[in-house]
Amino acid sequence: YYTKEKPGKWKTLVDSHLPQIKKKENIIEISTFHEMRGYDHYILKHIVLDNKLKIISEKIFDPSKDTPTSYHNIAGYSKRIYVLSVCNKHDTWLNFIDI
Q: Which residues are 28's β-sheet partners?
């Protein structure tokens, strides 16, 4: 996976691939500011993990109609939540939020 601090070979793509996280009460909104070019270049999914790296939830996108924004209920979770955004051409990107 790639991060803001360690984007590897994709250092010019951080802004369009790193998932952005907003928290409001027990819901987190995840947005990846990446255009969806049909099945040519798109965000496949968002995955939310707890602090033990167990999956809380995921959202799979349909690149023919979806935008890469998802909402996830994190009620009952604490500490750090990890978020992955998966691009079909530029790999998996990791971000996190401390709650």
A: 23, 72
